Each structure stands twice: as structure tokens, then as C-alpha cells.
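Run log // design_07
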């Protein structure tokens, strides 16, 4: 690392003011701050001294995402070989999955960071580290069969219309990665719905297993919840779905790390699960007696372990920019996301996931929730003061 540091110090004068590569300062700064902790200092006034900056926060989230990434890589290979009836080792599953997901990650980071650096150059400011997390979240929310050009398009859309038009990192009012996912879902539905969740690259001399279906548990639960994988398989993630969203266990491991480091809000995570579970119980009460396999009869906890519910609760709903900021607001915000997700799944099977739309919907209402919480607190204090 010392040699790398010396190399950067040697070329740095070329990118500073007056250097021959001055106009590319933002690109140099992006590379330097990615590799090393910035040596910026504050000048004048009173400042909070804290070792936690945006870069450390983003790196913490990336570490929390690693369990879902690694499991997603393994599950890509597992589902592929399962479709052809081939017994495979863990190493074979990981290798196959890595070969498939690596291009998605490279394109996501390449396209997104390229546009981010371009905007930094145009505006003359430093490149923020926010896309380090977003660049990983976008592929994790997509099927492994998503074409690379779509990943690039989603990444560019995310940066331009999800962040930069609002002022850049920290100014977006919606979760950028989910916004990119929603853009692809509505613009190219054929690529993100139906039986597109498993890589079915032909295996020499092998045909698909008789009766094989690539439908996810969310695609079949509406008509017959008993046709879904077992609760254990759904909890562990041994099912079809987006790359990083299938395993509730891996998401909970990431949640534990985010809560331990103070980066993720345990109030939001817990309230999302609570809202989903209580709404599931309410649907059980309303379930029609003449349709015993209807989704309304599904045990309430099914909704918590199916699809991307846990992934969304842990990594998306807790986005510190687009989520509610007040403590009470976080409880309300998370509860509504969980409850609305189950409602969408039950009453609008056209959008079986539900979590994506619920988070984006309440991203919009988060400031209003905070406003009512703050105003209520002000009114209570005024009332006490006037007594």
C-alpha cells in the first residue's frame, strides 16, 4: 500500500490547480478517496469530532451486504444445476454464480461511477462515496438473467434521475437503487417478471428436469400458498428470486451488523417486520372459507420470509436519506411499509413483491410523517407551557 500511496502522491500535482490534468481532478479524487481515508481537515468554528464519515458508513453497509452477495452467488449456481438435475458441490455453485454475477457488478459500478464522476467534473466538486453501496444494491435486486445493457441503463438512470437532479448524494428523496429497479420493472416487464429468475444456460447432454418451473414463490402464492417452497427453504433462501433477496437469514445477519455499528435503524427494521406480520394476521381473519389455499390463509410469517421482504426491510427501508428521521416517525414509517407490502401482495397480484413499491411510496411520505411527529411534540410542549 505504501508504494501505491507514493504513486498517487507523485501524480497528484498534475491534477491540482494549475496542473496539466487539472480538469480531471474529480476523477483523481474519486480514486484516491476510494483507496485511502481522506486527509481533509476542518477550518474554523466548532465541529463534532467523529471518525465516522460517509466513506466509513458506506463501507460498513457493503460489509453488511456481503452475506447476501455470497449466498446469492452460491444460489445462482445451485438453482442452475438443480434445474438440470445435476448434483453439484458448493465450490461448483460458487464458481458458476461468480461467473454470472461478476459482469453485472462490473457494469453497475462502471456505468454508475462513470456518470457520477462526469457530474463531479461538470460541477467541480468531489465524487461522493454513496454509489459504492448503490452499485452493489442494483445487481442484488435483479434476476441473474438481466441483460448487461439493462444494468447499465438502470445504473445511469439511478445516478442522473435518482440523485444528481436533486443535488447528489444525500439530497435524494427516494432510494436510488430501488428507483432503478422500479424503472426497469415498468419499462421492461418481460425481463423482470415470469420465469426469468434462473440461469438456464444449456448443459451438454442435459435437458431440464421434467415439469421444471422457474416461477418464484411469490408468483404461485396468490392462488395456492401450499405450492411455495417449505418455510425452511424460504428462510434459508433455497428458492428462485433476485440475486441477493432470497435469503432471510443472510439479511438478518447483515441487519445484526448494521445495528451493532449504529448504521442501520433497528426501529425501522423491527417495525417493518411487525407491520408485515400483523397485517398477515389480519388477512387471516378476512380469509374466505371457501378458498383454503388462497394467500389470505397463508401463515402471517410467510410474508416475512418470502421474496425480498427481509432484504428490503434491512437494506432499503433503512436508507438514512430517504427514510423518516424522527424516532417515532421511524416506527410509523417502518410499520406502514410492512403492512402495505402484505396488502399489495394480497390484493394486487400484478405486483407480487410489494416491498419495492411500498418503500418508494413511503419514501415520499417520510417527510410528512416526520412533520406530524414534530408538530405533535411542539403542540404537547405548548400545552404544558400554557397550563
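design_07 sequence
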Amino acid at each position: 500500500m505504501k508504494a501505491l500511496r507514493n504513486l498517487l502522491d507523485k501524480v497528484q500535482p498534475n491534477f491540482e490547480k494549475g496542473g496539466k490534468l487539472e480538469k480531471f481532478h474529480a476523477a483523481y479524487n474519486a480514486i484516491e478517496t476510494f483507496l485511502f481515508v481522506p486527509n481533509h481537515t476542518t477550518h474554523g468554528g466548532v465541529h463534532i469530532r467523529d471518525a465516522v464519515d460517509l466513506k466509513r458508513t458506506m463501507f460498513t453497509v457493503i460489509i453488511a451486504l456481503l452475506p447476501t452477495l455470497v449466498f446469492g452467488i452460491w444460489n445462482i449456481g445451485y438453482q442452475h444445476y438443480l434445474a438440470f438435475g445435476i448434483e453439484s458441490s458448493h465450490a461448483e455453485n460458487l464458481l458458476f454464480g461468480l461467473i454470472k454475477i461478476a459482469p453485472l457488478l462490473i457494469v453497475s459500478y462502471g456505468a454508475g461511477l462513470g456518470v457520477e464522476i462526469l457530474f463531479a467534473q461538470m460541477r467541480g466538486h468531489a465524487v461522493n462515496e454513496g454509489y459504492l453501496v448503490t452499485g452493489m444494491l442494483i445487481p442484488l435486486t435483479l434476476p441473474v438473467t438481466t441483460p448487461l445493457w439493462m444494468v447499465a441503463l438502470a445504473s445511469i438512470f439511478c445516478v442522473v434521475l435518482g440523485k444528481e437532479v436533486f443535488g447528489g448524494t444525500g439530497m435524494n428523496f427516494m432510494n436510488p437503487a430501488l428507483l432503478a429497479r422500479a424503472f426497469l420493472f415498468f419499462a421492461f416487464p418481460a425481463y423482470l417478471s415470469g420465469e426469468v429468475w434462473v440461469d438456464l444456460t444449456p448443459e451438454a447432454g442435459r435437458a431440464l428436469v421434467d415439469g421444471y418451473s422457474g416461477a418464484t414463490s411469490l408468483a404461485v402464492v396468490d392462488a395456492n400458498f401450499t405450492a411455495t417452497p417449505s418455510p425452511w427453504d424460504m428462510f434459508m433462501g433455497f428458492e428462485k428470486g433476485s440475486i441477493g433477496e432470497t435469503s432471510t437469514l443472510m439479511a438478518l445477519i447483515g441487519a445484526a451488523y448494521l445495528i451493532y455499528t449504529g448504521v442501520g435503524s433497528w426501529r425501522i427494521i423491527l417495525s417493518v417486520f411487525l407491520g408485515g406480520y400483523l397485517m398477515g394476521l389480519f388477512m387471516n381473519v378476512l380469509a374466505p372459507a371457501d378458498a383454503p389455499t388462497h394467500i389470505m390463509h397463508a401463515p402471517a410469517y410467510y410474508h416475512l420470509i418470502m421474496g425480498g421482504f427481509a432484504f428490503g426491510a434491512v437494506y432499503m427501508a433503512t436508507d438514512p436519506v430517504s427514510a423518516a428521521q424522527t424516532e417515532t416517525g421511524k416506527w410509523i414509517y417502518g410499520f406502514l411499509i410492512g403492512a402495505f407490502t402484505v396488502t399489495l401482495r394480497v390484493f394486487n397480484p400484478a405486483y407480487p413483491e410489494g416491498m419495492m413499491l411500498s418503500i418508494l411510496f413511503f419514501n415520499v411520505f417520510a417527510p410528512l410523517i416526520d412533520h406530524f411527529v414534530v408538530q405533535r411534540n411542539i403542540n404537547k410542549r405548548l400545552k404544558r407551557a400554557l397550563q
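DSSP finds 16 helices and no strands in the chain.
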